[in-house]
Specification:
With 294 residues, the chain is α/β, with parallel strands linked by helices. 41% of the residues lie in helices and 15% in strands. The structure holds orotidine-5'-monophosphate. InterPro entries: Aldolase_TIM, OMPdecase_AS, OMPdecase_type-2, OMPdeCOase_dom, RibuloseP-bd_barrel.
């Protein structure tokens, strides 16, 4: 089994089967460079790749991504909705993407953006963050808008099993500021999310397993990330207009924890495996030289 872990059964109810997520992520990023590629099988991309917009086309697309990227790129982020839209056949493909990417050494961040009342959150934690579940990934995205505390079952399941979470803090979409920049007493909502994550990550070495999502397109940071001690997933560069220079300017001394994420900008290089891999490596090298990451 690879260092990114697997969906294998745990030895006991409490023993983690793998190293803590922050340590695993740090190791893979130091080996492969700071890049997350999103596996987002948009219908338009399927067409562009000469594939049908059906479960067979999805499978071809997704497994080509795995073949091209899973043994080179640090983190792969399948977006669940693009698989769900094909029903059970799509979920079977998603299960394969998770398992085969992990076998090739990539960390799999399943983008499901979950957030629910505590008791239901426990069911999501069982589905995505618990050994033995066919959809268990190395990490998932979470939405904190039912209150950060409602995420507790997912945070506990992740910690217990060496998995991670990435909580939406400042998202890349234009509608985000009306909620995320709103004030909650003296702090913005986004800052309360940062502070809650920082509290959970305090003292964990090399970094904690509670990451945040901060889009490359947000303009100005407006939050203090100094105490976060966790990874920052940064989508929105490329297809959404964010640039590597935006990332460098935004994150300053938190730059070493930044994991830029790109989907369409890399995926449009397909369908040839070699071209797709080359585009991912070119993107990674551009990130390294723009951020001085390694
Ligand atoms: O959580 C995410 O991944 C995410 C958060 C965010 O603020 N903005 C954002 O674009 N994303 C996701 O990142 C991917 C961006 O895709 P591209 O714009 O094609 O690079 C999509 O899967 C989005 O759902």
């Amino acid at each position: 089994m690879t260092q990114s872990g697997s969906n294998s059964q745990s030895n006991s109810a409490s023993a983690p089967t793998r190293a803590p997520f922050g340590a695993r992520l740090t190791t893979v990023v130091s080996q492969r460079g700071p890049l997350c590629v999103g596996i987002d099988p948009h219908p338009g991309l399927l067409t562009q790749w000469g594939l049908a917009d059906d479960a067979n086309g999805l499978e071809r697309f997704a497994m080509t991504c795995v073949e091209a990227l899973a043994d080179e790129v640090a983190v792969l982020k399948p977006q669940s909705a693009f698989f769900e839209r094909y029903g059970s056949k799509g979920i079977v493909v998603l299960e394969r993407v998770i398992a085969e990417s992990q076998e090739a050494g990539a960390i799999v961040l399943l983008d499901v953006k979950r957030g629910d009342i505590g008791s239901t959150m426990a069911a999501y934690a069982a589905a995505y963050l618990t050994d033995g579940s066919p959809l268990a990934a190395d990490a998932i995205t979470l939405s904190p808008y039912l209150g950060f505390g409602s995420l507790e079952p997912a945070l506990q399941a992740a910690e217990k099993s060496g998995r991670g979470v990435f909580v939406l803090a400042l998202t890349s979409n234009p509608e985000a500021p009306e909620i995320q920049r709103a004030l909650n007493g003296p702090r913005s909502i986004a800052q309360t999310v940062v502070d809650a994550a920082a509290e959970r990550n305090a003292g964990v070495r090399p970094i904690g397993g509670i990451g945040l999502v901060v889009g490359a397109t947000i303009g100005a940071l407006g939050v203090d990330l100094d105490a976060l001690n966790g990874p920052l997933l940064v989508p929105g560069f490329g297809a959404q207009g964010g640039t590597l220079s935006d990332i460098r300017t935004l994150f300053g001394k938190s730059l070493h924890n930044v994991l830029p994420a790109s989907s369409r900008d890399v995926l449009k290089a397909g369908p040839e495996v070699f071209a797709l891999r080359s585009e991912a490596l070119r993107t990674r090298d551009a990130i390294v030289s723009a951020t001085g990451h390694h």
